[in-house]
Amino acid sequence: MLNHFRTGIAYVSNVAVKERDRCKGIAKRLMTKAEAQARSWGCRAIALHCDMNNPAASRLYKGQGFKSIKVPERANWPQPKTSPNVQFSFMMKLLNTRTSS
């Protein structure tokens, strides 16, 4: 049996919940599933961009353990495709990839 483990970083490109369905824990469940998928791939971290003018999203991600980090100058990260005026915070969370017995 060939075992292949990824050691990269999973990137979440978009989390959206219809306005009428917000504040029901849906986004938290989506992020929990994204983290579980990243772990199953063997990723060591998960990252995303968060609109700095969206305090609800910022609270969600910070509450899930994400930290805003400064991206190194030459890093090759995807940039969100949006209006030029929108500013984003790059956020990352380290994942515990060890399984408990």
Automatic annotation (TrEMBL):
Q: Which residues form the N-acetyltransferase domain?
A: 1-97
- The signal peptide, as residue positions, is none
Gene Ontology terms for molecular function: N-acetyltransferase activity
Instruction: State the Gene3D superfamilies in the record.
Output: 3.40.630.30
Note the superkingdom of the native organism.
Eukaryota
One GO cellular component term noted in the UniProt record for this chain: chloroplast
- What this protein is called in its record is N-acetyltransferase domain-containing protein
Whose protein is this, by species?
Coptis chinensis
Upper lineage is: Eukaryota, Viridiplantae, Streptophyta, Embryophyta, Tracheophyta
